[in-house]
Amino acid sequence: MKIKIGTNLASALTRTNGTQRWLSVRTGKSKSSVNNYVNNAPVSANDAVSMAHVLEDDQFSQEMGHMLLGLIKSFTGTKIPKNMSSLLDYDDFEEDEEKRYLKVKHVRMILANPEELSEREREDLISYLFEKLDSTMMDLTVLTAGADRLGTTLAALLHERMPTYVKMHYIRREDITWPQKR
């Protein structure tokens, strides 16, 4: 699988104060290859992941995860504020909407019903799931901004938190498979 990442890569290089030459040295790719990628030449999934590891930029990593695997990512639109205080206000709003839809759409009753969903139940569940997705993406946006404020990455925070999740039995120890951050 090959993807085009030119705009995302150029933005990540800017955010990290990296250069094409620096990235080529760190990834073992030629400078002309990196230049081609920045200019939107298709890149293999392995090379995109390699660049994400080197850049250690949450936004770029999330973009690659979204493009390659369909994973959710942070909000990046112009309406989204850059400061944490305002982001938390947006987060509160999205969480309130999620909770409101959970209640008014009777989602717990819908999920508890073992029968096939009616069309109305499907619509109500979809409405709630959209609100849950909005809230989750805003949570990811806040987490990413907070990690950036600390001068670290979301991946590094997650790695540090993993032992707690194992201890709480939220994640099995054998499911922790990615390598330690460089």
Give a written overview of the molecule.
Helices cover 67% and strands 2% of the residues. With 182 residues, it is an all-alpha fold. A two-stranded antiparallel ribbon has the order 1-2. Helix 2 (20-27) crosses helix 3 and helix 4 runs antiparallel to helix 5. The mean pLDDT is 93.
Which helices and strands, and how do they pair?
Blueprint: E1 2-3, H1 6-15, H2 20-27, H3 31-38, E2 43-44, H4 45-55, H5 58-69, H6 84-104, H7 107-112, H8 119-150, H9 154-167
Gyration radius from CA atoms, angstroms: 20 Å
Q: Secondary-structure element sequence?
A: EHHHEHHHHHH
* Helix content percent band: 55-70%
How many individual helices? 9
Return residue spans where pLDDT drops below 50 for at least 5 consecutive residues: none
Give the biggest sheet.
2 strands, antiparallel
Number of β-strand runs: 2
Average predicted confidence as pLDDT: 93
Strand order of the largest sheet: 1-2
Percent of sequence in beta strands: under 5%
Q: Identify the overall geometry.
A: elongated
Structural class: mainly alpha
Tell me the span between the first and last alpha carbons: 26 Å
Summarize the structure.
By secondary structure, the protein is mostly helical. The protein contains nine helices and two strands; from the N terminus they run βαααβαααααα.
